[in-house]
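Quick one:
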Amino acid sequence: MSWFSHDRPDLNQQQRKQHRDIPCKDFPTAGQVVCPPSLENLSCASSSPSQVRKPEPISYVTLQEQRCVLSWFQGWTATQRERFLQDLLGKAVPGKVCTLLDSLSTLQVKDRLPNIFECQLRLWSQWFESWGEEERNHFLHMLEERDPVFVSHFYSNVAATAGRN
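Output:
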């Protein structure tokens, strides 16, 4: 069996030409650009166009920074992750005295060079400060995909600061 009309011996020259000239309606022509619908357009909820806010695209550099931090996170010990949690908590609820005191307790005057983990935290802090809100939320979402228990613990710590100064 042949799928192409020019290879079919049962068709004469005229039938082959007619068969070949039938436009295929299932596929776009080479010049057409077909874009799949966005998830916003597939939503069942009715919202006016003024209410729909398109998220800012994450830059390539920011995405690489986030992937780098997530890679480090995978290799950190439980103690290092706890230190990262305190740092993340201080960034999420800045100005809370309880988080400032926790951060101060981790500061130490050292007469030695910083270790790899300390350098990673410094880079993390610099990168985090340069990210916008959408990028920070994106990072938290990616972290939640990697370690949902850690992020759940983070959210409970954020909630615990609600009534405290």
